[in-house]
Structure formats: structure tokens, C-alpha cells
Amino acid sequence: MLRFIVRRLLQAVLALFILSVLLFAWLRSLPGGPVAALLGERGTPESAAALRAQLGLDQPLPVQYFRFVERAVQGDFGISNGVFRGQPAMEVFLQRLPATIELSVVAMVIALSLAIPLGYIAARRRGGPLDTGSVVFSLIGVAVPVFFLAYVLKYVFAVQLGWLPPSGRQTVGIGATHITNFYVLDGIITREWDAAWDAFRHLILPALALSSIPFAVVFRITRAAVIDVMDEDYVRTARAKGLTAGTIRGRHVMRNALIPVITIIGLQIGALLAGAVLTEKVFAFQGIGQALAIGFELRDYPVLQVLIMMAALIYIVVNLLVDIAYAVIDPRVRTK
Amino acid sequence: MTDKHTEPEAQPTQEPDSAEGHRPRSYGQWRKDRIDRLAESGSIADEDGVSLWQSAWRRLRRDPVFLVGAGIIAVFVVVAIIAPFIAPHDPTRAIPELRAQITPSTPIPPAQPGHLLGGDNAGRDLFSRLLVGSRQTLIVGVLATLGGLTGGMVLGTLAGGIGGWVDSAVMRIVDVMLSIPSLLMAFSIAALFARPSQWTVILAIAIIQIPIFARLLRGSMLSQRHSDHVLAARALGVKPTPIVFRHMLPNSVGPVIVQGTLVLAIAIIDAAALSFLGLGNPDDTVPEWGQMLGKAQTFFNTYPHIAVYPALCIIVVALGFTLMGESLREALDPKSRR
User: Helix or strand or coil: residue B231?
Assistant: First the structure.
């Protein structure tokens, strides 16, 4: 067990190293180099030279790389030069992270509560009209650009029908107290129920649009897993024993079919984050996705750098934790 | 569009004779599994001597999913070829009569006789732009896919053909790339260019496909390394290089075609996402659907139709490629032939 964890840790360290080299290379190849990226349009030759010396860009490459890693470890990615001008890039990330987590969680809940039952039913009636229908539906879901779906939802439910708010995280001037920056949670903690409800209403449309990404994946995995499990001997045995349909479904089929589904769920973070860039832009939802969208538009490289680095870091750490968790649960994994 | 569906799907089958079934599937691991499974398909002949392609074609001919997908793509390709000849107006220039209708209060000329769908915000004929846009969309999709395939083929052949430390080194890098969300990587690559163009869009989308094709080809090579035809060639004294290029690569065509078809859909959708973020080609003289959709965002709440038409075109074509790719994958997968 210990050997497995150590080996897996070493792999993660290697991944981090490759990632840092990629990010360093990315930073070096920015138009005009990091100096122009940091100075923006305000740069003069003198200030550029000063900044070069200050950043150590006159040093040899390996030295520069170690400086870069050193600063990254300290969370120092520079000061934003875009809309968040003057704010440390790391602060922009930390401030906005709760919003995106909140959005992703709601999107995931929507996707799961639709995709798992639908996947099960489609698998049980394989080849039937419901199966064909939902498979085609999930394929269409793949083909629709997320941001277009977001615009359609916004146009229909916010602009035309006026049922839900078209943008933002909370109605301005509602006077909500913010503690954790998870607005719904804040409303519950402070018992400002109307503030919590208002924040939740702001979440629905962007979360619906975003949920189309995990929906397609979870639906297909569930369907395939249920089809596989139904063929297993233990299901036939359970049926032969005369167990009720409900017991077979709950204890034997779903319990086993959900194993691959669960592993996918925790790790759709990356796909959700890329989708959040597009969705949050449409709904002017102040999360890290919107910060990335603004960053790409204005070429705010310090902000982009920290957001991409943190996204990849979270990714690698979550991957690591999931693998270790599985090794704890399933001893066969360790020997592999 | 994102990682929804870029790779072939590994059925979460639980092989009874291995511990693979319950292997942890972290996201990167999951993507790897899906690619590996596809890599193993496509090189095995049926017992009754019918070649894989023959039996696949037999199935495809009667598969409505494939026929619908192929039909959509056939129409799309034909339109892309003949569009400049059938377009009623020049899509690159403002039509004076449409231009004259643009005022601050009505920035988009409405549909009218002679202009089926009206004009865009520069007074160009929308219908003609959609028709001709198919051509540029096809070019972006095909070039991005071919670019990713070429890069992946070089890496995959190196890794699978040479093996050893080259294999380990290439695959470590490929695996790290696979664990980064691909669309996010496309955004980051596109942001590297001070002046975005159609070419930077193609390049960004091509690069994110490289690790997928590389892993696919390597897997396919490894699964053939000990197969009979390679052993036979080796016994006959064929040198390693011709074995890789004449005997192994041709057998990887099946998985590559499946993946390529799916990637075409993704490329077209991703190009739209890049345009939407302002990372696409800023020069919209020559129309392309993704760009038309991306640039229509400012009018979505007031004149949704100028976004909806290119979006529908993208959705239908992406669906066509996806349907085709999915049915091809199933037809080439020996396991699904039960």
C-alpha cells in the first residue's frame, strides 16, 4: 500500500514538473515575451529593461526556470494588467473560486439527476424508442456549442419569459452578507433566506447550460455500464433466486454499474472549467471562468497564468487522491 | 466541445480475467482507457475469413445512424464545393441595398425578397455567407484534424515503433497533455499569438488532438507487435522500418478514421468557441460558421436569428460527423459484434 502511494506520488511530481516546464515555455513564447505581457501598452524601453533585470530575464534559462518555480510555489504570479488592474493575480483566483465551485456543483447535480436514471432506463430498454431517443439526444448535446445553449436558455427564460435573472451572481443592492463567498451558503449561514434564494435563482440557467457537458458523458457511461452488468452471472443468480426487481436493481445492478460512473463524476472538473469559461461569459457570472474569458480577451497574462496553473494543479491533486482512494477500497489496484 | 466526447469510448467492461475492470479511472486515466480500447479495434479479422472492412461495411449499409450521418456529411461536402457557384450574392461584400437599410436603430437588415435570410451587420447577404461559410468550415475542420493526425502519427510511430526510453519519454508528455482539459489548452495556445488568424485557430485545435492520435497509434502498434502478420514479415527478413510503415501503420487506419471523424465535429465546435472568446480570426471577409456565430454574440438578445442560423449549421454538421464516427466505431469493434 505504502509502495503504491509513493509510486503514485512520484508520478504526480513528475506530472507537475512537466506541467511547470510547459507553462514556463508557454510564458516565454507569449507575444513580445513576459515583459511586454506584464507591462502591456504602458511599456517604455527603459521600464522594459528595468523589468527584465528585475525579473532576471538576463539570466540563463535554467536559472530563470528555477526563479519561475520559486515564485509559483509562493503563489506570486504577478499583478493583473487587465480589468483587475492592480490586484495580485492569485487574489483574483481565490476570490472567484467559490463562485465557480458553486456553479459546477449545481451543474453536476442537474446532470446526474437526469443522466443516471435516463441511462438506466435506456439500457433496460435497449434498442427501444426511448433508448434510441435518449442516445440521439445525448449526441445532439455533444454537437451543440455550450455557449450557444447558454444564449438560448438566457434568451428564452430570462429575456423573453423573464422567469430567471439574465446575469450576475446576485441582485445588486440586496444587501447580502458575504462570509465564504459561496453566496447560497452565505445566505443560509446568515439566515438571509431571500439572499440565498436570489443567489440560487442566478445559478439555475448557467448551471443548466454547463450541465450539458457532464450529462452526455455520464449518460453514456451509465448506459454502457448497466448493459454490461445486466449480462453478469450474479444478476442472473439474483433473478433465479427470485429477488424482487427493486432489490436486483438497487443491490446488484446499480451498485456495480455506478462504480465507473462515480469515478467519472469527481473528475469532470477540467471539462467543467473549460465550459465555465464560456458559460460564465454569457451570464456575466463572476467566477474564475469569466476571469479567464476576460483574461483571454484582454491578454491579461498574469491572471491567465495563475488560473491555468491552478486548474492543472487541482486536476493533478484530485487525480492523485482518487487513485489513492481507489487503492484503499480495491486491493487489486495496488498490485497493478 | 469540451472533453465531452473527443475520444472513442471505452466501455467500462469488467473483464473477468483481469483486475482492469476496477482500475481507478481518474479523468486522465479514463481518457487513456477510451483511446486504448479504440487502438485495439480495427486490426482483427473475423474467423470466417471476412475482412474487417467487409463485415463493417455490411453492418454500416443497414445502420440508420450511419446512413443519416453520412447523408448529412455528403450534403455538407457537396455544398462546400459548389457554394461559390450557387450563392445568390457575393458573401464578402456589402450589398448596397442592404447596406442602405442599416441605421443605428436597425443594425441588422431583415429578411426580404432577394435576400432570403436578410443581411448581417455589415450589410452582406446572410444566406450567401452561410452557403459559402461551409467551405471555410470544412477547411478548418479538415486541416486541424490532419494537423493533429500528422503530429500524433510522428509521436505515436516513434513511441510504438522504437519503444524503450523514447516510448517512455513521449508517453509521459502525452499523458500530461491528456490530463489538461483540451479546450482550455486550445484557448491557451491561441492566446500565444498577438495577431490571431484562421491559421492560429487551426494550429490550436490541431495541437490539442496530437496527444490523442499519438496514444491511439502507439496503442495500435503495440497490439500488433506480436501479431502473426508482423512476426511473418520479421521472419521473412523485412527490416524494422518497412515493418512499421508497410505492415503496422496500414492496420491502424480503422481507429484513425473513427477518431478523425469524431475530431472533425469537435474541431468545428471548438473553432466557434475560440471565436466566441475573441481568439478567432478577426477578419471576417471570408465567412466561416464558427466565426459568424462567435461574432453574432452582441446581437443575440436583439436579433437572435443571425446567431441561430450558423449555430444550426454547426450543430447539424457536428451531429453528422458524430453519428458517422460512432457507428463506424461500433462496426469496427469486434467486441460489439455479439
Answer: helix
The predicted-structure confidence for A168-224, as pLDDT tens digits, reads as follows: 877 777 777 777 778 777 777 887 777 778 888 888 899 999 998 888 888 888 888
* H or E segment to which residue B201 belongs: helix B198-224
CB contact under 8 A, B9 and A224: yes
Q: What is the pLDDT of residues A230-284, one digit of tens each?
A: 777 888 888 888 888 888 887 778 877 777 777 677 667 777 888 888 999 988 8
A293 contact residues in B (CB cutoff 8 A): 277
Domain ranges of chain B: 53-96+116-336
CATH 1.10.3720.10 fits B53-96+116-336, yes or no: yes
SS (H, E, C) A78-140: CECCCCCCCCEHHHHHHHHHHHHHHHHHHHHHHHHHHHHHHHHHHHHCCCCHHHHHHHHHHHH
Q: For CATH 1.10.3720.10, list the domain ranges present in chain A.
A: 96-335
Distance of alpha carbon A270 from alpha carbon A273, whole angstroms: 5
B176 contacts in chain A (CB < 8 Å): 15, 18-19, 22
Least confident of A98-112, A319-333, B137-151, B286-300: A319-333
What is the rounded CA–CA span in Å between residue B160 and residue B225? 9
**3-class state of residue A172 by DSSP:** coil
Residue B321 has pLDDT above 50, yes or no: yes
CA distance B324 to chain A (A): 11
A56 CB within 8 Å of a chain B CB = no
Q: What is the ipTM of this complex?
A: 0.80
| Class of CATH domain A96-335 | mainly alpha
